[in-house]
Amino acid sequence: MRPDRILVVNAGSSSLKLRVLGQDGRSRASRNLRGRPQDQPGARLARELAQLGPVDAVGHRVVHGGAEFLAAVLIDGRVESRLRALTDLDPLHQPGALAGMDAARAAFPEAPQVACFDTAFHAAMPPWASTYALPAEWRQRWGLRRYGFHGLSHAYAARRAAALLRRPVGELRLVTCHLGAGASLAAVAMGRSVDTTMGFTPLEGLVMATRSGSVDPGLLLWLERAQGLSPSEVADALEQRSGLLGLAGTADMRLVVDRAAAGAAEARLALEVYVHRLAQGIAAMVAAMGGLDALVFTGGVGERSAPVRRMAVARLGFLGLLVDEERNAAGRGDRRLEVAGRSTPVLVALAREEVQIAAEVRELLGS
What we know:
The protein is an alpha/beta fold. 41% of the residues lie in helices and 17% in strands. The chain is built from 15 helices and 12 strands.
């Protein structure tokens, strides 16, 4: 039987987004729950899910699939056990995803549950992009490599960009920019990820809302060795007290932009650091593919911050990029921003991870 209603469970670090999608990809029901899912009583979560109505299958966003899970998979006891073992690699998100699985099983005991992984889209990156220059013994023993994240968002953004350009995704070189509380870039060549900015964990890469992005590892070793900070203190600072928050005192890009415009020096520095790292990363992704057919912005900041888009593209004119100021400043939804006839396409694609998850669930279930 072809599943009609698919529940998508998207567990964040401090929220749970629930969407029921029909075969047309449109939302039939939705709910956003505040608070860490793993801190909520399981029975309460199950009741919240059940209130969305009957579903035929459940798809879960799982941030980290490690080296084992390279595509969507039906959840059984063995799979869930392996996912629990990966919690150390992503303590911010994995517990919430597991709590969502428990609640969905209680609410819909007969519906198949599917895990869809943010790491899967990047799993086939070439070795030159995924390999760290670390001792072979370490890499082999502990599976140390660049995994990449936000793959569900990057995969959807690439497909949506191809549709907006009316060209097959298999013939395009795209840089997809997922800019939200977490942020990463992907080089998508011919529909496949060939490079990305996040690595073994979601800490590597761009400046984010509260995460530092890439930092000299020698600096971190110095803090522990010479200043006596514990690993947990360093981890807390890198994940919760860095990024825009560490630079400007707020993790909200809207406030950073407003304060920078009003002349606040810390906010201006935060914005400049953010955009510098963003433009630098985009150029690196273009180099990984040997060219660019379109630049795609998605995620909360990517979709809503015209100043960030304008400032980043202004640094990338040597790549043939130029945005139309009026298009960039106005408009909503999926759209093109470039100066027609004078620029490589620049697009906004609204983040629809739930659509990608539902598509992967249907593909796995053979419908």
